[in-house]
Design goal:
This is D-proline reductase (Dithiol) proprotein PrdA. The protein is α/β, with parallel strands linked by helices. It is 21% helix and 23% strand. The chain has three domains: 99 residues, Alpha-Beta Complex (Type Iii Antifreeze Protein Isoform Hplc 12); 243 residues, no CATH class; 175 residues, no CATH class. Strand 20, helix 11 and strand 21 form a beta-alpha-beta unit.
């Protein structure tokens, strides 16, 4: 496949290979040369052999061919009328195959403590047969910062727009009893509340509650549909005021239909609980959390529709609300107070976080901006909103403005608890070198025409926000990667430095790409690079967030990104982690978590 003039400029130091048979008298141009990005695939397939006497692209452009040459043949000086002289080289000297160029010096953003150079290749589809997939490459330590340049002392000064206080209330135990109450740190749930809760939706046929203590997790459960915290507003609305959060306990929703079919789509997490959840990850229960399991049975054949899974969430929320009402008036021990602030840092780089959420209908949906943190009532489904971009403040996200209804693969699913403590929101909001403008939630439609339309709306929004940089994330993989790459392109073509964050690894390799998808952060934590059916495994973690934020800083600073290793390599991720002072990413496989 021939290359464009733009691609040629990016590969002047790469070997010059004819893409097709060329005849004597040809003046060599970009249209005659094969794309260097495909060389590795071609070598593996035995279609191409590079030779030591082959010339580089910069040495052959504009030269005339003296004889006929076959396709995928290295260009050597004996078939040309001349060899272009390159500054610092003699024209008659044969060029060796290009080695990796030295890593550029990394200069930190003002006030930073050094950058890591993370490299990534872009995915490109060619002839519908083979794919280049984005993977990690290594980084280099930052060079010492240059001499300080005098700046306005008020640049980057923090201005608080609104504040949110999250009071974490200690919960020491949960019991099923004859009333719903909270006393002395113990939540008691009326065991008969399920009879009223099931009436919230006719598609929900039955509900069952079970309390699972940390030392009781080696028990069988059906597929995990969601993990949801218990939180309630006691002052103000979502994103401001005071919120109480029950500390040490979460709800876990599981579900099947009347035929016993698991409510899931790509992968299912039924099995022994201690083997099917990545405890401690943002969307999951923590190591010492008490889990209130709410098991729903929904109408036959409704599991792959929007109303079916929603019925289970809606009925569970009836029970959660009863506990919220008790939490509002409970004056218990406060384990910690979490101060969350929406701020402006005028003069710092203006950045935004774009979260692509599921919106393909069926069971792919989310509830945005409910009345209560992580709730259902009063919220709107992003599918019903046309999946258009919706701008939230960081505090609104941290106060539970997103309730996840999605039943995609467990390992890559961002559950409700993930959103209320999203590491990228926390990291960007706390970074005093950046000015976090907001969090954009954009749905992923099913139809390609709708994907493009929604992505264009996102592009216009990013442009109007006058951003200096953006991080774009997506949960899951496959169909939604089409939107994901479109979103990256919408930012890139507007000159906005962009970093993508997704699960790709082996199974989730990107099926599309563009020239702007050159800075990608991998979420995978599965040993084989697969969706491993362990809930919450391969989502954004604090370590992933640190790498993504540092990469964005590098991109905004103009640090070039070199082509990366072709295949996913966790060793390179760990090298980056070490440079940033992070723990190594320890990959898991099914059956090893307990």
């Amino acid at each position: 496949m021939s290359i464009t003039q733009e691609t040629l400029q990016q590969h002047l130091k790469d070997p010059a290979i004819f893409c097709c048979r060329r005849e004597k008298g040809l003046v060599i141009s970009a249209a005659d040369l094969e794309d260097p990005g495909l060389f590795e695939d071609m070598q593996e397939a035995g279609l191409l052999t590079l030779t030591p006497d082959g010339l580089r692209i910069e040495q052959v452009i504009g030269c005339t061919l003296l004889q006929d040459v076959e396709a995928l043949t290295p260009i050597t000086k004996d078939v040309l009328d001349k060899v272009n002289e390159v500054k610092g080289e003699k024209a008659e000297e044969p060029a060796a195959v290009e080695e990796a160029a030295p890593a550029p010096v990394v200069q930190p953003i003002t006030g930073g403590n050094g950058m890591i150079h993370i490299e990534i290749g872009k995915a490109e589809k060619f002839d519908g047969l083979k794919l280049d997939v984005p993977v990690f490459a290594g980084g280099v330590p930052a060079a010492p910062a240059p001499a300080a340049v005098p700046v306005d002392e008020k640049t980057g000064e923090k201005t608080v727009i609104r504040s949110l206080i999250k009071k974490h209330i200690k919960i020491s135990d949960v019991k099923l009893g004859d009333e719903t109450s909270i006393k002395d740190g113990v939540i008691t749930i009326n065991k008969d509340i399920v009879n009223d809760a099931v009436k919230e939706d006719v598609l929900c046929k039955s509900l069952e509650l079970e309390v699972i203590h940390p030392d009781e997790r080696h028990i069988y459960t059906e597929t995990i549909m969601d993990v949801c915290p218990i939180a309630t507003k006691v002052e103000g609305v979502l994103g401001e005021g005071i919120t109480k959060v029950a500390d040490g306990v979460v709800f876990m929703l599981t579900g099947v239909d009347e035929d016993g079919v698991q409510v899931h789509e790509f992968g299912s997490s039924e099995g022994y609980l201690d083997e099917k959840m990545y405890f401690g990850h943002p969307g999951c229960a923590d190591e010492n959390d008490i889990i209130i399991r709410c098991h729903a049975v929904i109408q036959r054949l409704s599991g792959m529709t929007r109303p079916g899974p929603f019925a289970a969430h809606k009925c569970q929320d009836y029970i959660v609300q009863a506990i919220r009402n008790e939490l509002k008036k409970y004056d218990g021990e406060i384990v910690r107070e979490e101060l969350c602030e929406d701020v402006r840092r005028v003069g710092n780089p203006r950045v935004a976080l774009v979260k692509e959420i599921m919106g393909q209908g069926a069971m792919h949906d989310n509830v945005l901006c409910p009345e209560e943190p992580c709730g259902i009532k009063g919220g709107q489904k992003n599918v019903d909103c046309g999946n258009v971009p919706i701008l939230l403040t960081p505090n609104q996200v941290r106060d539970g403005s997103i309730h996840a209804l999605t039943c995609i693969g467990p390992a890559t699913k961002e559950m409700t608890r993930h959103y209320i403590r999203e590491p990228l929101v926390e990291g960007l909001a706390a970074d005093d070198e950046l000015d976090l403008i907001g969090v954009i939630c954009v749905g992923s439609p099913q139809v390609n025409d709708e994907k493009l339309w929604v992505s264009e709306r996102l592009g216009s929004l990013m442009e109007s926000m006058n951003l200096d940089g953006v991080i774009i994330t997506t949960e899951g993989f496959g169909n939604n990667h089409i939107d994901f790459i479109q979103h990256i392109g919408q930012a890139g073509k507007r000159g906005v430095p962009v970093v993508g964050v997704s699960f790709c690894a082996y199974q989730g390799q990107l099926v599309v790409g563009n020239e702007y998808a050159d800075a990608m952060v991998e979420e995978n934590m599965d040993k084989g690079g697969f969706e491993n059916d362990i809930a919450g495994t391969s989502c954004v973690t604090p370590e992933v967030a640190v790498r993504a934020i540092q990469m964005l800083k590098n991109k905004m600073a103009g640090v070039p990104i070199k082509p990366a290793e072709k295949k996913w390599n966790n060793d390179v991720i760990n090298a980056n982690n070490r440079l940033l002072g992070l723990p190594e990413t320890k990959l898991v496989e099914s059956g090893t978590l307990h």
